[in-house]
Every structure is written in structure tokens, then in C-alpha cells.
Amino acid sequence: MISRRWWILVRYLRRLWVRAAIYCLVGVAVAVAAILADPYMPSDLPRKVGADAVDSILSIIASSMLAVTTFSMTTLVSATTAASSSTTPRATSLLLEDTTAQRALSTFLGSFLFSLVGLIALNTELYGAGGRFILFIATLVVVVLIVVTLLQWIDHLAGLGRVGETITRVEKAVARAYRAHRRTPYLGCVPLLQDVPDGAIEIQHDSVGYLQHLDVKALSAIAEKGDLDIYVRRRPGGHCDPSTPIASVVLHDASATYDAALTAGIRAAFTLGPRRSYDQDPRFGLIALSEIGSRALSPGINDPGTAIDVLATLVRVLVPDGKEERDREDRDISYPHVHLPQLREDDLIDAAFMPISRDGAGLVEVSIRLQKALAAVAAAAHPEMRPAARRLAAIAQRRSLEKLEFEPDRERLVAETGL
After folding, report:
1. In the chain, where the domains are located
2. pLDDT tens by residue, 378-397
3. Which residues contact 232 (CB under 8 A, 6 or more apart)?
4. What are the protein's UniProt keywords (predicted)?
5. Would you identify the CATH topology of the domain 186-273?
6. pTM of the model
7. Of 115, 112, 117, nearest in space to 32 by CA
8. CB 273 within 8 A of CB 4
9. Nearest-CA neighbor of 288 among 89, 79, 85, 96?
């Protein structure tokens, strides 16, 4: 379980401008390093390898890389816009965090700055003969890097922004969050299965937003230092505002007084944002996948095949594969003074399948595939998912039977499905 600082650092490293800035700094540093290393190079070596040609090579790179960067950025924006309109806006952040796209854009921009700084230094005669040789070698490395990146970028563009590729990216994000949830369903805290004790001190957050990250390690440190128990009232993904408590505090010593300064520390452990995050919130990823299937069933798109593909994806996420132990949950309590409410299985199943069961109720092929998907989850997923899957399967079948007007379709649904 990473702390709030590490989580914020990881979030920043996923941003496009951070990677681009790092590549630009590296490119500028290499160009400047050639100036500093000039006194240590033999003066006649550059003439033997033709380092004087570096001027024209850098000019080509400088004139082409800016155009390539602009074109690539336009392509990325168009892909995210297409994915947002054809799948779900919740997938846009995953496309912008795509490592291949970030690496390509950063390489092109870094190469442009490298060539620009090199040309400026050459025209101001900052390079000696040795420095020109080092710059020539670095330029050859940059050319190879550009060619390799261009080939990868061209291959990557074939699927960027397409529905299937977007589903795959959302699947990876939700699978990672769901597997982490199954390993530590309570984040190492004590399960909060009952009501908060009477007399608990309620703490509200002073901001409004979705809980993106919960630093349970920081809460545990506060609880141990203050000799108290903290009852968390909101799991990651929940909406917080000043009118509802985010946590409750119970003092171990009834005669002790609560230090109001602890409130700021508890609030700091709750990182809020305008939108939900995939990291600690498996429901958000399931909702995103279900939205893709639901949008495919809209009259304007009318693509039942995508909805069926989403159902198969949801089964892959919820059902462990052969390499994974089915009961791999880690019930060890690492933070005995922090209590966390459970994430109900009904909520997970509803988030994954409810929209498709509603919008696809009038299509027999989608209804049958939904029943089979829920049957697979009930049979092969975690045992605690079985009642929730059966409950939704019964509701979905009843809804479909009311929507389907053709009697043979109704008979087929009843004959081929059922839990």
C-alpha cells in the first residue's frame, strides 16, 4: 500500500508533459555535455570520421521533428476524442497515459531541442573539434532512436483510439485494481462490518470531490500516536463533501480530550479530486467497461457485438485465470486501529452488468450472453460473488422477458440460460 506522497509522484510521472520534460532535459544535457568534454578529445579525430557533417544532420532533425511532434500530438488528441465519443469519456485518461504515445512524443520533442541547442552552439562556435566529434556521435544515436520510435509509433497508430484497443486498456486498468482488491479487500485494516460505536467524533472534509486515494498507513500512525481508533466512512471512489463524515474517531481513554489538530492529519490522508481514479477503486473500472457496452447498445450506434465483447471482458476480469489462486485474499490486519467498510459484492456486480442488462434487454443475443456471463461469474469467480451474480441474473432475465415481444425469443432465453 503506497503512501499519499508516492501515489501523487506516480500520478505525476504518468502525465505526458512530465515525460516530455525529462526527454527534453536529457537532449539539452547531451548537447551541452559535448561542450564540456571538448578539451578531453583528440583534435584530429573528428576529421577522420567526418564530424563536420553534423551541421546538416542537425538542421534536418530540427526542421522535421517539430512537424512530426505537432502531427503526433494532433493524432493523439483526435484518438482521445474518438475514444471519448465512441466508448466512454472515462477512458480518456488511460489513452493520455499510454506509454508508447508518451515515449514517441517525448522522443520527437527531445530530439528537436537537442538539435536546436546543438545548432545554436555550433553557430556561436562553442564547440571545438573534440566537441563536434562528440556531438556527431550523439546525433547518430538520436537518429537511430528517432527511426526506432517512428516504426513503433506507426505500428501503434493502427489501433489508437479504436473501440477494441480502448476496451483492452480499460480492462488492464480494472484488472489491476480488482486483483489488488482481492488480495487486500480492506487495505490491511480491520473490517468495519457493524455500525460505528456511539459517542464517536465525526470528521468532515472541508473540500468536495471523489476520494481518489486513501493513505491508511498515515491514518494508522495518527491512531497509534493519539491512542485512538479511526473508523473510515468512505472507501476510494466515494463522493465526499462537508455535510457527510469521512471518518469517525473513538478515544481509547474516555477521559482524554480530542486534539483538534489531528483532524488536519486525518483529512490529509483522504486525497480528493474532481474525478474518480482507477488505482484503489475497482468499481470505477467496471463502470467504465459497462458504459462502453451500454453506449454500443444505443440506437445511434446499434452495435450489439461490442456489448457482447464487453461482457466477455468483464468475465475475464472477475474470474481468476489458471495462474491465480482463487482464494488469494490477504486477511492479515496490518493496521489494527483503522477500520474500513467493505466493498459489497452486489455493488461490484451491479456496476459491471446492470447498465448492459437494462439497455440490452430487448436484444435476445445480448440477453443470452449476459446470462452466460453471470453464470460464469457465479461458477468460477470468487465464492462471495455467487449470490450477487445469481440475484442480478434473475433480475436481468425478468427484464428481458418483459421487453422481448417475440415468443420464440422468450422461449430461447428461458431454455438456454438460467442459474
Report:
1. 4-161, 186-273, 280-329+343-416
2. 988 788 889 999 999 999 99
3. 189, 192, 214, 216, 219, 246, 247, 338, 339, 340, 341
4. Membrane, Transmembrane, Transmembrane helix
5. Aldehyde Oxidoreductase; domain 3 (3.90.1170)
6. 0.84
7. 117
8. no
9. 89
